Amino acid sequence: MKQSKIKNVVLASIAVIAIAALPSCKPKNVSTATSGDAAKKAYVAPGKYDEFYNIVSGGFSGQMSIYGLPSGRLFRVIPVFSVDPEKGYGYSEESKAMLNTSHGFVPWDDLHHISLSETDGVHDGRWAFGNANNTPRIARIDLKTFRTAEIIEIPNSAGNHSSPFITENSEYVVAGTRFSVPMSNGTTDVPINTYKENFKGTVSFINVDKESGKMGIAFQILLPGVDFDLSRAGKGKSHGWFFFSCYNSERANTLLEVNASKFDKDFIMAVNWKKAEEYVKAGKGVKKNVSYAHNTYDEKTHTANSTIEKEVIMLDPKDCPDMVYLMPCPKSPHGCDTDPTGEYIVGSGKLAAVIPVFSFTKMQEAINAKNFEGEYDGLPVLKYDAVLHGEVKKPGLGPLHTEFDANGNAYTSFFVSSEIVKWRLSDLSVLDRVPTYYSVGHLCVPGGPTKKPWGKYVIAYNKITKDRYLPTGPELTQSAQLYDISGDKMQLILDFPTIGEPHYAEAIPAELLSKNSTKIYKIEENQHPYVTKGEKEAKVERKGNEVHVYMTSIRSHFVPDNIEGVKLGDVVYFHVTNLEQDWDVPHGFAVKGANNAELLIMPGETSTLMWKPDRVGVFPFYCTDFCSALHQEMQGYIRISPANSNVPLTFSTGTNQPPIN
Amino acid sequence: MTKINGVSRVIIAISSLLIAISFFVPIWRIDLFAPQYPEGLVMKIWLDKLTGDVEVINGLNHYIGMKKISVEMFPEFEFLKYIVAAFIVYGLVIAITGSRKILFSYLVVSVICGILALYDFYQWGYDYGHNLDPNAPIKVPGMVYQPPILGHKQLLNFDAHSMPDVGGYIVIGSALICAIIWAMGLRKSKS
After folding, report:
1. Does residue A157 lie in a domain region?
2. Which residue of A has its CA nearest to B57?
């Protein structure tokens, strides 16, 4: 009896221990992965400002989003390559031209990468550049207004992926073809299976005006039909060079998954752009007839203007020796990142078991010694061992991108093993690794791609979110994760949801942008052709079947707010000027039944909504942005009469026009 | 009656000349703070103009039916600078003559002008705060919007602060210096 009791106690104890031990079989979860002070590190108290702006690509949303770090709070989504009805972008008459291309109006694109302008290799806080992947374009965003200031289309290109990376004085942003294509000047209607013969890649160098930021295609380089993936400018000692990763050196045009993964090594392409400039000057370039849109936004007229340009200069490396070299890089390299000194170029073969790190000094020596292992389509291929600084051994699975801090360390993302690995550039030793949730793509260290990394954090932009947030059906939020890198060990301190699918991002100290941020547009500087600079100037004009309403908005009324004499078949243009000159007082404008979006008009700005009334009746319009205590009173009516009616054109605010009998 | 001593005369001369700064800086300011305006709105009153967020303030005032504030409405802006110029000359006359009598008269005139200025300011404030448009969107029964002459006052959601600006402090300071010099001379002559 006593014995069996003891036996029972022992058995029960074993069961308890077994159950207690069970959870330890599961992998570490967030509660064990983040330590106690994480919340404090990411906490920015209400009303306090963040330390950094994080400028994040919106991926397939086509937009750029602005977050604060370390809080992860979203401040603004800047419409760039996709229409945004909320802001009237792509809908207002002024903004439509911004999305014009040689294919006409394109309402969507896929924005992958961000570059911030630099002076002497350091962030200068003037512009952010973004690439359109699908219909190749580069956009320039003004960081005073956080608006898209310019979009330039890239001819002879498809899948503009290795873009818009930037040189250390913003001399150039680049654009490389992911998809090689038949060049547009020759015959383009070719069988796809003639890829090897007819398809070519290009990289384009787009110059940026030092003062205005205005872009222009300086030259393109005609290249073999590989897939260019990512790129980085040299800096410091390697200033004057640009490095592009490329895969599909097999030149497959179908089932690339298999057919472009055959070779042991693809390439990092090194372009001596200073040399290219000399060749252009020497007239070695060939002018090619092309067609591409160049759209600029005029801040004085608040209007985008699109012109179609017809010519680019093409350099062929066959006519331009010593301009392009290839460095073999294992297994379909993706990331191609240069360290802050400009000495090291990190290639990340996404199927490779090592991370090769190339030395710029060794590359120069190998070029001088003509240490080539052969040629690829006429381009000299340097010997791998001759240009290699070394390999990071057993770093993880699926290396993609590398960012740097100011202390000689590199941070590489691993998609397959879902982690960030910190390693040292000098001896290539792995120092630390942390998991990401899940499958990280790009990384961002503030200032990471510059000569002067600001450091402090690394942000992981993840491709898979799974169980990290409350579920919202099959479509889940996209997400980023913030890690503190100020100590020896990386520490996860925050998860935050993002817009679209985030690819590359940059972060910049807040004071570099916040001090220059525009508060209002000055009404006296408004040169919009349909501006109304005061309520007395408000009017309605008929030009044939076009009716132009010169309208003002100020808290809390429109002038005019009663309009009659418009007929079915007329096209109505509401040119609305926001007369406010006070910070954060936008007005909106929407009219019932319009097959269009709203307008969102900043103080001192003029925007135009086109409306084709589809029926006879009286249509209300109102202010859509809660502007004041009497916002709900900010409304009006426009009467649409039959086409053959003789109702006179009248307009008024405050009194009836025509007067009541 | 003794003359004002040399050092004091120099001080009077300098402080009188310093008043000239008030031609180039605002003399008074009214600051307004509200939950929506944590950064504050300011109206700066110069000898001959108004600066600051006057248009914004006018935009807000239309809700309660206050008249639009504009420089043309104030005849004072036409002649204030001449009065101040007269004071500078007045001060220099004291410094040159060293007359305590003139100094005393200067102080008396200063006090009278100060009171007149404040009364004028009060009148304008009263007019603006009381004579409201009967069709104003916002009517709060019994509410008047007269700004404070000096100090602060809560007007609906706005906390209004009224105080001298740089020019005002210089003018007041200069008058105080003259008063102190006069008082010191008084003690001396008694002892």
Report:
1. yes
2. A582
